[in-house]
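mind reviewing this stuff:

——
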Amino acid sequence: QMVKEYENEGFDVHVIDSWERLRELARTRPKGLYLIAYTRLRMHPDFVPVTKTARVKTQEGIKYTEACLNCSAVVKRISKGSKEHCPVCGDVLYTYVPENKRPPLRYRQWIADIERNGSSTEVRSHNKQLPYIRFLKRIPFDLAIFDEAHNAANLMSNQGTAFIRLAASANRVLCLTATVTNGMAKSLYNLLWGINPVQMREAGWDMKSATDFQAKYGAFKEVRKTDERNRHRESEKVQTYDTAGISPAALVYTLPNFVNVDSEDFDDLPPVEREVIKCAPHAEVEDCMRTIDKIIDNAELPIEDKMPAASVKTAAFLRVSDTFRHADDEIRLRGSLLGTLQRRPVDELLEKESELVNIVRQVETWGERLLVYTGNTQKIDMRGPLRRIIADSVPNVSIDVLPDSVAPDKLVAWFEKTIARVVIASYHRVATGLNLSQFNNLAWFDYSDNTRMAEQGEGRIRRVNTADIHRMMYGEVRPCRYWYLTSSPIQEAQLAYTLEKRMIAKLAEGETPDIDPAECTSGNQSFSALITKALKEGNIDYQDPSALLKKMTRSDNTKVREENKIVAPLLAAPMTPATAKVIPFPPPEPSPSPVSETIPVIVFEDGLEVVKLCPADKYQEFVTEGMLEVTLFGTYLLTGRPRKRRRA
């Protein structure tokens, strides 16, 4: 894609797509732009076959044989030096060998090291050579640009070490990212060393001081643990863990080195509309959750596995309300099967699935396209069931599913080729590096508690050039609409948790957060710890995600040009009756048309919403004075403080 974009810019583009190509470029050193992927940058050119031994059904019957890691399909014997792919899912059956080749470390050895060295461990990289970096350093780069630089924040990884070594050999370094930190101070440390090593060295830091940097500029929490069964230790032990939070004193490092390009600098953006659709869980879900509890309780796990088992339970509770009628759910801990939740035969659509169908119908009415995100619901792939549900409910709509067999470097071409009205994809595959502005509607069928993935995933359909793309496609700027579907209180809590973290993360990036950090109900806990505690107490405490989204949407829309916000509301086309709780968006006109003499505006009279026709000149006056609020429900006239709108 980049080669195509830069082919007429007056310089050569050299793509490093093989070990032989790199060695040739290191020898000839031609001028121009060099492109290399992170995955190649951090790896060794050697590779080994990778499969698993699984009990599968073959032509000779059920037996143990070599199988694909992804789909468990039977694979033939792989010859040495051959890069094979799975004949069923197309997944690769080989992996590159990291240069470090670390020896395996057993759990007991790891625990012994912690007890011997204390809770604070020295941060160091085990990477020794990184052969791609060895050859790249022979090329005198004037400028090294690292896109998605947050991927290099971990010094302990090959990727982080490759970033440091390549940055040290370039005259200038430019790092690009939309998510500077993960909320912890140490996530800045490696980037600062790559951008400005002189400042870090003069301040007294060295490459092994990431723990000290976190202790000085970050936040931590103390956890008290009780172990009554071990008489060789104290019954109560206090452990310190790093947590989210960055001191303003860290600005002495970020201000000289960071340029914060705010969306205010790009005001030609489409407005944003967001809606949470809260669906009731099916009656079978409660019994399924009791079965999951029994499976974990009956496993008789040792005490050291109680906390990992709690995380397994949280993940199972998150997905069960969506997956229980589609597939058997194997509850596993570190690969060991604890038990299986059998599929429940429910023929009717779940409420959440019906809501998704309604969204598809409405998007089809508008003549627009819809992107549906699913995270493969942790362990059960929901892409196939969702495609079948939509195809059966909306027969004439075109649907496409992004398969796992599409390689990362082929994603752009795949999205350019597909013309389907609805595309279903895993947000793990498309959350970064893609411009999907051809979709202005995004439905999260299941969400993520990874703030970076959530932020990046939403940004795919709202880019700097999205407004121009809308004008070419529709003749006007249309809103970017987001739906968040939940089917249980735990899913609502996950949505609220991630939204809070996303809002507060702006503080560490030099922006004003959308909410006061003191309002954050989740505190410094991880989502797994939050839910584990809530399940034990029998009460899940979280903010209403609808209120959080309203604040976030208001903040996003204040940075949008006024002319991009003005979309005259029209009556929606008739829809098939459904159980949707969301009020449909007013469909925009298919082509630009002159402003009518009167425009409908919603006002409040005696606590009730009344639609009145407003003259065009008066409407423009309200727009200039900022007295109009364009929402999912229509255009509201802000006269005083309106009462809370009741849901239809």
